[in-house]
Amino acid sequence: MTLRLSSTSTSSTSASSSTGNPTVDRLLQDTTLSIQQKTDCLKTLNVILKNLMDPQKSLDEKYRTLKLDNAKLQEKIFRVTHAMELLEQTCGFSSGSSSTTTTNENNNNVLLLASPPSDFTRQSILAPVQQAIAAGLAQLLNGSTTTTTTTTITATNKKPRMEVMGEEKLSEKQKARRLLEEKEALEKIKAKEERQRNLRLLKEDKLTRETDPNWKPGLSAACAKSGSSISTFRDKYG
User: Fold this and answer.
1) Which CB contacts under 8 angstroms, 24+ apart, belong to 155-159?
2) Strand ranges of the sheet holding 65-67, from the earlier edge strand across to the other edge
3) What is the pLDDT of residues 20-41, one digit of tens each?
4) In angstroms, how far is CA 228 from the centroid of its own chain?
5) How far is CA 7 from CA 3, 31, 154, 209, in A?
6) What is the DSSP letter of 98?
7) Could you tell me the pTM of the whole model?
8) Among 5, 63, 81, 180, whose CB has the most other CB atoms within 10 angstroms?
9) Rounded distance between C-alpha atoms, residue 134 and residue 157, angstroms
């Protein structure tokens, strides 16, 4: 059987779109993770970094302690190799005992930053990591991270063409389903942000109406065109 092999390597994440942190870049380029998984992971890491960057919160050990048996943390960061690498090798977390655990808890079942980070650590290590995470989230929202390495295998016996994406072998149908899932996840994220933006605008408008004594309702486009207001039931009958 004759096979014709053609190998291509495509990547939309160029040096210009790098986050500045190699570990975050590898997380974004991991084809085994969906866009939603990457987004959840980076958002959780951002919350952890935000607490460490706060001089007051970082003094409290509970903000420097991550319980390994926490279901949400397991799903969002502990199962992601690059996230654990970022926490342990870059931020300084390690397995250990916490003074906040009770006698019924396993003291070694936590990931702990032993002492509050110094100002130097915050500025030279944690701040750049936080910036890289923010850049990664921005790339995911803009849909600019689709790094894949594909190898096309075409056989003369008309068998379905397979593509190797990272360590996965996907057929055209599986690839299309994966892309559709990622597109739907991205659309949900954008729709959620749009709803939040609209709610924020409504709240601001409500606050303006309640607090600004000079506020007056504006004319609608129909009123402005006709020169008269639109009569309502209350206008007619009181």
Assistant:
1) 155/1, 155/2, 155/3, 156/1, 156/2, 156/3, 157/1
2) 65-67, 110-112, 94-96
3) 899 999 999 999 999 999 999 9
4) 50
5) 13, 17, 11, 62
6) -
7) 0.53
8) 63
9) 48
